[in-house]
């Protein structure tokens, strides 16, 4: 399973793993893939610096990447206190009322945290500055093309830049602005997605950007068979995310026992693509929380970053409550294959073995 990206990044397998957990990212890198740490959960530079220092010291010298979120629409600056003035009182009242009806208790006095500021453009820029003080080989932006000066700064440090695309025209725009790698993320993926399924999207983007631009297939990838399919569609590697939420190392970040029950019993039909998490379309696990937002009388989600600031405390309370029927978690349709909690190394080994078995089976078919 070697492509040109393996040589470019010094990895054994072209398996890129997005995760908010530095523990998961480190294990993926040590297993021969490229762990990519999602930075959006880090509210300040020192917090991210500590996480990347830990990765520097716990990846056996293997490469890793980081993922930032750089939304471009106003309001993008300021603190959550400043932005709270943009949140309608009726939205806050509805969230409080809904949590009460779902039996989600308030957090103990003094617990909780400020709204996630990583959705702000200014915070994302600080994430880039901190990351470049460490040794990432890739910076990915989850919301389109990064600003030109960010791309230039990354390139000055010898760091490649990737951007997610949900349509061929977006991929072409990324390339014209200097992005090195396109992540062709299909409708099936968890988190922010477009409206085109991977089987159609990936070859369309490969053809649109041409043979000199590497494309990573993303969305609905949780087995070696699916990796083989993505490479067959023209991708040079895969961008995976949801499957790492079901690893034992992820527990270092999220000890929400209810979440594990929720995803291990879910099927591929148990997700919803909604704007309630960040203000942009994102695929989430279906729960009583998502049902409430779809019910008659629920408010319309606010634009990014206001929606995340609106629901951040609610998500903290939901996670603390640990009720598997009331979860607020982005996950892709691949959740139907996440039937048990396993170590990262085991997941990686299964992906590779299944890929090799699939290729041998296809070779046999090709040989007649």
UniProtKB/TrEMBL annotation:
Signal peptide: none annotated. Keywords: Flavoprotein, FMN, Monooxygenase, Oxidoreductase. This is Monooxygenase. PANTHER family: 2-NITROPROPANE DIOXYGENASE, MONOOXYGENASE RV1533-RELATED. Pfam families: NMO (PF03060). It comes from Nocardioides luteus. GO terms for molecular function: nitronate monooxygenase activity.
């Amino acid at each position: 399973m070697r492509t040109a990206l393996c040589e470019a990044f010094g990895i054994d397998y072209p398996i890129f793993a997005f995760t908010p957990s530095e523990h998961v990212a480190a294990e993926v890198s040590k297993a021969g893939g490229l762990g990519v740490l999602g930075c959006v959960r880090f509210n300040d530079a020192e917090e991210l610096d500590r996480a990347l220092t830990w990765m520097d010291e716990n990846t056996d010298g293997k490469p890793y990447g980081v993922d930032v979120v750089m939304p471009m629409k106003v309001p993008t600056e300021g603190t959550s206190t400043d932005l709270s003035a943009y949140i309608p009182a009726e939205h806050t009242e509805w969230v409080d009322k809904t949590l009460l009806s779902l039996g989600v208790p308030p957090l103990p006095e003094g617990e909780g945290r400020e709204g996630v500021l990583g959705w702000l453009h200014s915070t994302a820029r600080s994430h880039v500055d901190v990351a470049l003080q460490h040794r990432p080989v890739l910076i990915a932006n989850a919301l389109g093309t990064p600003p030109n000066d960010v791309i230039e700064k990354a390139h000055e440090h010898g760091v490649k830049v990737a951007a997610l695309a949900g349509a061929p025209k977006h991929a072409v725009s990324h390339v014209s602005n200097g992005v090195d790698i396109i992540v062709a993320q299909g409708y099936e993926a968890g988190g922010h997605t477009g409206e085109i399924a991977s089987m159609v999207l990936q070859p369309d983007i490969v053809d649109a950007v041409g043979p000199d631009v590497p494309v990573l297939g993303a969305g609905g990838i949780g087995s070696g068979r699916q990796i083989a399919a993505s490479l067959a569609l023209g991708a040079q590697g895969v961008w995976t995310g949801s499957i790492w939420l079901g690893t034992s190392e992820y527990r270092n970040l999220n000890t929400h026992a209810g979440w594990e029950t929720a995803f291990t019993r879910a099927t591929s039909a148990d997700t919803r693509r909604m704007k309630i998490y960040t203000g942009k379309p994102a695929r989430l696990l279906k729960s009583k929380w998502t049902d409430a937002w779809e019910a008659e009388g629920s408010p319309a989600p606010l634009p990014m970053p206001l929606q995340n600031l609106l629901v951040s405390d609610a998500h903290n309370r939901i996670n603390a409550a640990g009720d598997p029927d009331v979860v607020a978690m982005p996950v892709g349709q691949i959740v139907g294959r996440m039937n048990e909690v396993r170590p990262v190394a085991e997941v990686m080994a299964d992906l590779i073995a299944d890929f090799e078995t699939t290729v041998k089976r296809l070779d046999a078919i090709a040989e007649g």
